[in-house]
């Protein structure tokens, strides 16, 4: 499945996710990520993403588990150094949607399972920023935005446009992406290998988030 809806200026790198691999209802199904302006060593404009999913911004209540959208994580490695960043897709816990935060700690899907357990879901998957860190003097970068766009069709129901204030400029680094869809991580989308490029923001090297492993179980109430 190739996702190329509403292309933006610049080349698109497409990360496809397997279909019918979500746990639970079709609402948890995600289909992939488009990455725009991915042109290593060339300033093609601010990097942006489209995330394709059936999962809504309002979340989904399953039993007593009020699942909510997962944060979007980026991993960048530059000359052996890794720095963690996360972008909330909805505002939560004092964090603003669209802002890129340095990540000091993460919350996994296990952190959100209601007391008493009994749910089947993807365990131990990073889904939200726990605490903000400091990456080479910066706790966060602004200039981004999140827009939840209904597709008007079926599967996917939503195209989430993630814009940033980041411009890639250096081909010597690599970065990858991770999105758990919801706080239960019922469908995890990630790039298979780091993509060559280092992102710069106003001339400042942006270097980001460690890779994560996908694990699958089932979510049922």
Number of strands: 16
Q: Can you tell me the residue ranges where pLDDT is under 50 for at least 5 consecutive residues? A: 1-10, 193-221
Shape: globular
Whole-number count of domains: 1
Structural class call reads: mainly beta
Order of helices and strands: EEEEEEEEEEEEEEEE
Radius of gyration: 16 Å
Number of discrete helical segments? 0
Query: What oligomerization state is this entry in?
Result: single chain
The biggest beta sheet is recorded as: 9 strands, antiparallel
Give the rounded overall mean pLDDT: 79
**Fraction of helical residues:** under 10%
Distance between the termini: 30 Å
Strand content: 35-45%
What does this protein structure show overall?
By secondary structure, the protein is mostly beta strands. The chain has one domain (12-206). Helices cover 0% and strands 42% of the residues. The protein has no helices and 16 strands. It has strands spanning 12-16, 30-36, 48-53, 60-62, 65-67, 72-78, 81-87, 100-108, 126-132, 140-141, 145-150, 158-163, 167-179, 189-190, 195-201, 204-206. The strands form 3 sheets. Strands 6, 7, 8, 9, 10, 13, 14, 15 and 16 form a 9-stranded antiparallel sheet that branches. A hairpin with a 2-residue loop joins strand 15 and strand 16. The chain is globular, with a radius of gyration of 16 Å. Mean pLDDT is 79; it is low at 1-10 and 193-221.
């Amino acid at each position: 499945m190739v996702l190329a809806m509403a292309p933006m200026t610049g080349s698109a790198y497409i990360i496809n996710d397997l279909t019918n691999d979500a746990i639970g209802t079709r609402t948890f199904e995600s289909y992939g990520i488009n990455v725009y302006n991915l042109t290593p060593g060339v300033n093609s404009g601010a990097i942006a993403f489209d995330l394709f999913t059936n999962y809504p911004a309002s979340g989904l209540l399953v039993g007593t588990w009020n699942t909510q959208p997962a944060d979007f994580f980026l991993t960048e490695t530059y000359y052996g150094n890794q720095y963690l960043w996360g972008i909330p897709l909805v505002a939560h816990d004092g964090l603003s949607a669209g802002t890129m935060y340095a990540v000091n700690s993460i919350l996994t899907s296990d952190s959100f399972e209601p007391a008493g357990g009994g749910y089947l879901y993807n365990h131990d998957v990073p889904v939200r920023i726990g605490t903000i860190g400091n990456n080479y003097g910066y706790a966060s970068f602004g200039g981004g935005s999140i827009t939840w766009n209904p597709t008007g069709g079926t599967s996917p129901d939503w195209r989430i446009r993630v814009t940033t204030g980041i411009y890639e400029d250096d081909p010597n680094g690599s970065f990858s992406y991770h999105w758990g869809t919801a706080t239960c991580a019922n469908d995890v989308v990630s790039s298979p290998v780091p993509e060559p490029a280092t992102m710069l923001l106003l001339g400042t090297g942006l270097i980001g988030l460690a890779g994560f492993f996908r694990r699958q179980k089932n979510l049922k109430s």
